[in-house]
Amino acid sequence: MAHTINIFVHSANHLEDVERFGKNDPYAQFTLNFEDKSFFQKTATKKNAGSDVEWDQEVNLDYYNPEDHNNLYVEVFDEEASVDAPIGFAAIPLRQVRDAPHHSLKARYDLFRPNGDQKGTIDLTISILKPGQEARSATAGKPEEKGFSELDAQHQHHIKNKRNLERAGDAAALLAGVAALAGAKAVYDHQKKAAHEQ
């Protein structure tokens, strides 16, 4: 029987600044299966939040089966006009939540950059709910407990692919900008030549 993973997303701190101009516009997304984008649930985007962000938002994953799902996958992205840029990610082993009192754990988890280096943290209250069970209210404030998060090689590969798409999107936008400038210059030169001939 499927259970629900209830995630209260408190905040994230010391995130990598991936924004070229301005500040990060971060959102967090969660899944038990990162290979299928339809399973992701995400927070709101916090515009111009930078490297420290507070969401204080609840997210539910209604398809948790303890026999099938060992990890909760966390991804933090910077919202972009074209392709969103990965900021950090982690795999959180759910055994620590199953072993916690009331199957609920409020903790701070390390995030990793696409290259595998640790950078930033995310504060979550993760609860496993049986069908019909209500989530306990998440208490405010910073978690006192350090949760365990890890680098999953397949998840890292998924994030690197997202980063490469974002970089390709940036390159395409840059090339389009250069082409537009070249076109504008050609029009300007043509108008200047026509004015000079008159």
From TrEMBL:
SUPFAM superfamilies: C2 domain (Calcium/lipid-binding domain, CaLB) (SSF49562). It comes from the Eukaryota. This is C2 domain-containing protein. It holds the Pfam family C2. Residues 1-107 form the C2 domain. Gene3D superfamilies: C2 domain. InterPro entries: C2_dom, C2_domain_sf.
